Automatic annotation (TrEMBL):
<dbReference type="InterPro" id="IPR053136">
    <property type="entry name" value="UTP_pyrophosphatase-like"/>
</dbReference>
<dbReference type="Pfam" id="PF01863">
    <property type="entry name" value="YgjP-like"/>
</dbReference>
<protein>
    <submittedName>
        <fullName>DUF45 domain-containing protein</fullName>
    </submittedName>
</protein>
<dbReference type="InterPro" id="IPR002725">
    <property type="entry name" value="YgjP-like_metallopeptidase"/>
</dbReference>
<feature type="domain" description="YgjP-like metallopeptidase">
    <location>
        <begin position="16"/>
        <end position="231"/>
    </location>
</feature>
Amino acid sequence: MHRLPPYRLRRSARAKYLRLLIRPEGIEVVAPDGLPESTVLAFVRQHSGWAQAKLAELQARLAKLRQGQAERFPAEGGSVPLEGRETPLFIEETGGSRIRVSLEDRGLRLILPRACGAERDRYVRDALFGWMKRRLPGRVAECVQRHGPQHGLYPRQLRIKSMRTRWGSCGPANDVNLNWLLGLAPPSVLEYVVVHELCHIRHRNHSRDFWELVSAHLPDWRQERQWLKTHGGGLIQRFDPVFP
Ligand SMILES: [Zn+2]
């Protein structure tokens, strides 16, 4: 005979019938006071297949939910993919209103005001964004120095912004905007987006000529574009979510 699943029996003076409840911690059977144990056992045996399937379903759903929460934001003990490499994140909360981000040997250290409370995720995101706005321009300038002279492609201005739907843009006056999350992508991906926008200074479209120019700078651009298609959405969800 097949074994009964573990369950918790709760006797109730108010219960009129036997009831089976599926809870995150397991199966619970509610039985009226005085109902014989054998009746309870027969009931559990009869419904054990259904109960176990429901319990597995519930636990899988909860696990997914928890994982989703963990992936959505880097809580303490999490990590940040700096330049594409997962880097441990240490968050410290102190009195006062100080917000600081520093890159240390052990990982990325964030100091946040203890008072941030329920707004903590937003503070973490804003701190990372602010830090990346200071850190990224130097790396972008290096890409421009490397690629600009080849075809005389120079942006008028470079800005690091939060853009939830695009990785870069090039305005009519050749102002180039780049998504701050590119600081969390491999360097070759950042380089590709910079080159892409620089090439728009020459071609304001995605014509064959445009892609030929991109290829002249980066023969492997397809690989980098694919990286963004595969991982870009995840980066946005994880590090630049829309806060309520
Ligand atoms: Zn484009």
